[in-house]
Every structure is written in C-alpha cells, then in structure tokens.
Design brief:
Chain A is of the alpha+beta class and 289 residues long. Chain A is built from six helices and 14 strands. In chain A, helix 2 packs across helix 5 and helix 4 packs across helix 5. In chain B, strands 20-21-22-23-36-34-30-31 form an eight-stranded antiparallel β-sheet, with no helix packed on it. In chain B, strands 1-26-25-24 form a four-stranded antiparallel β-sheet. Classes of the chains: A alpha+beta (289), B mainly beta (496). Chains A and B meet through helix 2, strand 1 and strand 7 of A and strand 9 of B.
C-alpha cells in the first residue's frame, strides 16, 4: 500500500458519481491514444493490463489515479483521477472483456529497417540523439571503420569511435526518449575546439551554418567561430589510426592547434602554430595509438 | 479503376461524397512514417520520413527516389522548388538543396536553430508555414515530464521551476520527482512558442506563446495563421487557434520566455488569472468524439467545389479529418468544425496534407509510437458539384434574437424540422484533459429555410464560450442525399 486510501478518496471526491458515457467511449476518449488491445503502443496492451489486474480492480483504480514510472524507456501515464472511481471500475470490466480470449501479438525480432553492420553505407550522415553530446548531435560514418560525433550546438567534433556505426532503433522505435547506441569503442574524445587563439572563448558563441555532402556522401561542416566562417572536412587517416581534418576560414588569424586526450596532432604548416598567412586553408592530422 | 471506385462509393453511400482513397506503395527499406508532405509543380510528391529520408514519389510510375537523408525527426516540409526544400527537424529549420543538379541533395543549410533543446523527447518542432508575405513560421513543443532533461542541453536554462537543472536531469529516480517538473515544461528558450522568421530565414522573432504540442500550423485563405494543439494539461480538449502576434494561447509553461516576465512559475498562477490572459479558442475538437490529436491545416483548392477555400485539418486518432468554417464575431475569428471523410476507408494517422496541382489530396501518415498509421495516401474527389454539405455557418443577432445561419451547397429537401442542438464545454485547468462540463440541450425556434433551400436559419440562445453541437443528420437534398459532415461543432467564444 504505497498510497494511502485517503489520497485516493480525496482525488476522487470532486469526480462525478455515475458514468456519463459507456465504458467503450470512455476508453476511446481517454485511453486509446496509448493503449491497444493486443500490442504495446505507448503503454501496455489491454491483454497485459488484464493479466496484471484481473482480480485486482482496486489496484487498477489506484494505478489510474496515481500512476508511476514503471517501465524503462516508456513514459509515465497521466493520472486519470478526473474520471472518478465508478467510471474507472467500469473501465476495468471493459478492459477484461476487451482482452478476453486475445493474446499479445508477438514482436518481430529487432528493427525491420536496420541495416546489418557490415552493410552500412559509408560515408553517411545521420542526425540523431547521441551520448556525451548536446541534443543537436550529428553522427558521421567515415569510409573504413571510424565514425564521429559532430555537435551542431557547439560546432565541434566531440568524439571518434571505431567499429560499426550507430544503432538508432532505441531512438526510432519510440517517440525519441532514448539515445542511439554507438556500435563501437570511442577512441578519441576532444575536450575543446582543436584550435586556440588569444581571444578564443571570449567572442560570440559559435553558430552552426550547415554542411555540404560530396558525391560519396562525405560531409563538410560550416560554422562561424571567432569572427570567421569555417569549413571542416574530416577523413580517415590511412590505417584507421587517426583522422585528417581539412579546415578553411575566410579570415586571417594566428592560431595554435591543440589535441585532446593523448592524441598527437600534426599540422600542414609543420608546427602547431597556424600563422595568419596560412589560416585560409590548412590540415591537421590527429592520430592515436 | 478510380472511376469505378468512385461509382461504387456513390452507389454504396448516399451520405458521403465520392472520394477515391488509395494507399500508395511504400519506399522499400524506409520506415514509412511521414512527417512532412508537399506536392511539386511536376505532379510528383515529396515526403520526409521518420528516420530522416526525403523521398520523391512519382505517381506516374508509382515509385520513389531518394532526395536527401540523415535528418532527425522531420515534422514539416515545404517545397521551394523541385530541388530545394525547407524542412523542420528536431534541432533546426534546414534548407535541403540539390545544387549540382544530380537529383540528390548536396547542401544542408541551417536557416534557424536559435532555440533551446533539453533532449527531452517531447520537444518536437513543426513547420514551416509560409505567410502571405513570405515570412516563415515554426512551432516548438514543450517538454513532457514523461522524462527529464539531458546533462548537456542547447540554449539558456530557465531557473523558474521547482526543480533545478541537476534535479531535472533524467535518471533512474525520475519517476519520483517528475511530478514537480510540471506535466509539461519549458526550461529552454522558445519552447511553447511560434517563431516568425523573415522570408530569407536570417532574422527571427518570438511571435506567440502558450502552445503545448502544436502539430499543425498553416495559413487559411484569408492569410490568418492557424495552429492546432493537443488535448492534455491546460487543454481540456484539443483546440484550434487563430494566432496573432503577442498572443498567449493558454498553456502557461512558455510564459517564462515572455519579455519582462516577472510573475515566477506561471503554472502556479491562479487559473482565473491565466484564463483572463489567454486568447480563447477559435474552435475546439471534442476529445474522443470529433478528434483527439488534430494535425496540419491546409486550404482546399478551387477544384474542390463546395469545399474550395475552406480549411481541412488532419487528425491522428480517428478515421477522419475535420473541416473548419470561420465566423468573425465581434472582431474575433471563431467558427465551426465538421467531420470529413467519415465512412470512407481513410483510416487513422492523418498527419500531413498537401494538394497537388490536379487537385489530388496527398496524406502522409505517422504514429511515432502513439495511435496512428503509416504511408502515403492519395484522395481524389469526383462529382463535387453534386455534394451536399455545409459551406458556411455564422452566428448573427437581429434585435434580441440570435440565429445560426447555415449555408448549404444543395437545396434542402427535407429534415430541417429534425435539427437538434446541444452545448457543452471543457475546463481550462492544469489537470490533463477534462470531462465535458455545462452540458445542456439548447432550445431552438423553428428552423427557417431560405426560398432557394440553400440556407437554414436556426433561432437559438447561444451560450458564451460553449461548443454548440448542431445535429443535421436528418437533412436531405434531392435524391434522398444526406450531408457530407452531419454534425457541426460551433465554438461561441464571442457572442454577436
């Protein structure tokens, strides 16, 4: 008895005493958006509900008045206290009747639209909720076995992983409450934008401008940062032990390249310094063990 | 085949207009939930899908070709040309464009992303709707306490609320604290707002607030911005709004982002105070009866006979759509909702709508794990000059007598003496949904039929704020033809 009877009565006090509508209509109005007879929609099927509450109408009413968060990856039901106890009891009977003789539809194995890991087209871009990034994340599969997360809110590379691409089914199968899973191990995390200059961080926040994809599907990201418009194209280094990042800017700025997390960076200028005379176009190679 | 089908439907039902409703094949390997649809000048149809593909359907070959991919939950698509589309996805409004002319998109240009995201699943983004002056409008959902927020968010965090940022982060104990988050919440900018963008998308202004889940924005034939919203907290039943700049449309969460807001947590304000602040509904969809989750509004083209110029609204949860007939009373645009496509094989999940140049209505279906359906459906009307339906409803007053004037597309030949009217309303309150309240039958005077039989005048005493349900099920036109749309739901937010 998690919720004292007092709470239940108080919640029901203001409710109508008799059902104005037949239970089937009450169900259609209040329940049908989320509950179907024989399969899970947003909430469990009537078959499953009937299984739980067949001999427990009190428990059913209590749950409807004060639902809780019970299932992982499933949202919490809103309270149905406004229906009142008599209507909820009728609804209980209606659900048992509707579920009688029915069985839960068998779920298919996995996601009918997923592509086997070995057949993932590379390169490709997929915007989806990813771990360890803002909600404006973009997943990019590179040729080979590297993929990376570009964060459109921060306008920077967040991490690189090795292996497969993403499993988006947890996100796509529902209404977007779950993150996609990385199909591999993160091999490089970048803690900050990989170039710095005296005023870096004191300027306007960066702005994401979009991306271009080439014939193969490889993206070039565009953003405004530090008063300049940048483009950044990331490709795998030979051997898969790193990435080559081609930058362009429309400005002239003295900058320094900085790697994160034990990676080494080699600049096309021959040193970590990118002089104002070279800032229009340069490449940084990041590699790790 | 279509001709035969129409003929069959005409014979089969004297009540419904003859609509040939045909599901199109789905693109292979694509999750066929459709978030955006538009018809192209060449007769093709563009659709945006749940997992981010933009596909173009050729009705001539009944085949799909891929235009773009990789978007996140696109929930609106507007064709600028056959090679350039504006698409609202979770994080931004994007122009997706084929620059090199190979038929595949190569540019994904961010037009507008200056709004917050907490990562909460319910922060869907809708639009764009294009206004008469070319301005673009997008609508931003508020978050649901079905989940918390993510550790990393985009945009400025609002400290207004019982739980602070750390407490709002989703974890295993979320269910224990979710009640304190507010049923729906707006903790980052412009959640619950409709934003107006300049035609080039370069400048944006917050336009109107108070929205919960406005999954349908669009313009009527007179250039008014319409928005539907979904039953829930502060939505006793789903509303339709005519949206004006600066208006507050009822759901308080988004008020925290109003310029100069100094009244603290808006959901803690007394309901009467919020009720006085809000713009009233232009129409309401009785939950479970007319519609549960209304979607996109579009305007019928001239080729749709008696429906031309009216507004058609999608519906997710019931096997129909809904028409809206406006009525300007005391300077306020309210009006009538009428069921449409009842008794046809349309089915549920009617989410995104677009009319082709040939008049065909294209319907994109989705569910996103709620009630709904999938795929693209084509609706072709025929015999529209014979359709018997209501074309206008106005509430008027002469002297002390109020009347409802109902215009019809064909002369009435019988049943005007069997008209019934009742009324009801719903609470405006924080609770989720509302029972019907103030239910009463409405005494009416003798309905009068105009000399040409095309106008029915019903004397009655309207109740301010109520939905007036007018049952015209017995009305007949020549040949014992019943109405397409037998019940009117007139929202009397204002009285003449």
């Amino acid at each position: 008895m998690k919720y004292p009877i007092l709470t239940l009565s108080a919640a029901l006090m203001a409710s109508p005493l008799v059902a104005a509508d037949p239970p089937a209509q009450v169900f259609q109005i209040n329940c049908s958006a989320c509950h179907a007879v024989d399969h899970m929609v947003v909430g469990p099927s009537l078959v499953e509900i009937a299984g739980i509450y067949r001999d427990n109408p009190d428990g059913f009413v209590k749950w409807c008045v004060k639902p809780e968060h019970k299932r992982e990856g499933v949202i919490e039901m809103p309270s149905m206290a406004h229906l009142g106890e008599p209507v909820l009891r009728e609804l209980h009977g209606f659900i048992l009747k509707a579920a009688a003789g029915k069985t839960e539809l068998k779920k298919g194995n996995g996601d009918p639209y997923s592509v086997p890991a070995a057949m993932v087209r590379r390169p490709q871009v997929q915007r989806i909720f990813l771990p360890d990034a803002s909600p404006a994340a973009i997943a990019v599969a590179l040729p080979g076995d590297l993929s990376y997360c570009f964060d459109a809110a921060e306008c920077r590379l967040r991490y690189v992983w090795k292996g497969g691409f993403v499993d988006g089914a947890p996100y796509w199968k529902s209404n977007g409450s779950s993150l996609a899973k990385l199909q591999g191990e993160v091999v490089y995390r970048e803690e900050h934008f990989p170039l710095t200059w005296p005023l870096a961080g004191e300027e306007l926040p960066p702005r994401f401008l979009g991306y271009h994809v080439d014939k193969d599907g490889l993206p070039t990201f565009r953003y405004r940062r530090g008063g300049m418009v940048w483009t950044e194209t990331i490709r795998p280094l030979a051997g898969g032990k790193g990435i080559a990042r081609e930058f362009t800017t429309d400005g002239a700025k003295d900058m320094t390249a900085v790697a994160s997390g034990g990676a080494t960076v080699v600049s096309s200028t021959g040193s970590p310094g990118i002089g104002a005379d070279r800032s229009k176009s340069f490449t940084l190679d990041f590699s790790w063990k | 085949m279509i001709r035969y089908l129409s003929y069959f439907l005409l014979l089969g039902s004297a009540a419904a207009a003859p609509f040939a409703i045909e599901p199109m094949p789905n693109p292979p390997g694509v999750d066929p939930q459709i978030g955006g649809v538009d018809a192209l000048p060449d007769g093709k149809v563009a659709a945006a899908f749940h997992r981010g593909e933009v596909m173009v359907f050729d009705p001539a070959t009944r085949s799909w070709s891929k235009f773009a991919e990789g978007l996140q939950e696109p929930l609106g698509l507007l064709a600028e040309s056959p090679s350039s589309f504006l698409i609202m996805q979770r994080a931004e409004l994007t122009r997706v464009k084929d620059v090199d002319g190979d038929g595949r998109a190569d540019e994904y240009e961010t037009l507008f992303d200056d709004f917050g995201m907490t990562g909460n699943y319910h922060e869907f983004a809708f639009g764009p709707a294009k206004g008469p002056d070319g301005s673009l409008y997008v609508a931003l959902n508020i978050a649901s306490n079905g989940a918390g927020v993510r550790p990393e968010i985009r945009g400025t965090w609002s400290d207004i609320g019982e739980l602070d940022f750390k407490q709002m982060i989703h974890d295993g104990s979320w269910g224990k604290k979710s009640g304190k988050a507010g049923r729906m919440y707006s903790r980052v900018p412009w959640r619950g707002w409709i934003m107006k963008l300049s035609p080039d998308g370069k400048t944006a202004e917050p336009f109107a607030c108070g929205f919960r889940s406005p999954d349908g924005i669009g313009f009527d034939a007179q250039g008014n911005l319409l928005a539907t919203d979904n039953q829930g907290d502060w939505r006793g039943t789903s509303p339709l709004y005519v949206v004006k700049k600066g208006g507050f449309y009822g759901h308080p969460a988004s008020l925290v982002w109003r310029d100069g807001w100094d009244k603290g947590d808006p959901r803690m304000l007394p309901e009467p105070e919020l009720d006085a602040m809000r713009v009233k509904e232009s129409a309401r969809f009785p939950q479970g009866e007319l519609a549960n989750s209304p979607a996109q509004p579009v305007v019928f083209p001239d080729s749709w006979g008696p429906f031309a110029g009216q507004v058609l609204i999608g519906e997710m949860n019931q096997a129909r759509m809904v028409r809206y007939l406006p009525d300007d009373v005391a300077g306020f645009r309210q009006g009538t909702l009428i069921p449409m496509f009842d008794g046809t094989p349309l089915g549920i999940g009617n989410h995104r709508l677009a009319f082709g140049k040939d008049g065909a209505l294209w319907v994109g279906k989705t569910h996103l794990s709620w009630a709904g359906a999938e795929g693209l459906v084509k609706i072709v009307p025929s015999g529209l000059d014979k359709v018997f339906t209501v074309t206008a409803v106005s509430l008027a007053k002469t002297g002390d007598q109020s009347v409802l004037r109902i215009s019809l597309s064909q002369p009435v030949t019988g049943g005007s003496d069997a008209v019934k009217v009742d009324r009801f309303s719903y609470h405006y309150h924080q609770d989720y949904g509302s029972p019907k309240i103030d239910e009463a039958s409405v005494a009416i005077g003798t309905p009068e039929l105009a000399a040409d039989g095309r106008e029915l005048v019903i004397p009655l005493q309207p109740a301010k704020g109520a939905i007036h349900r007018v049952d015209l099920g017995k009305l007949r036109a020549a040949g014992d033809v019943a109405l397409e749309g037998k019940v009117l739901y007139y929202q009397a937010s204002e009285l003449p």
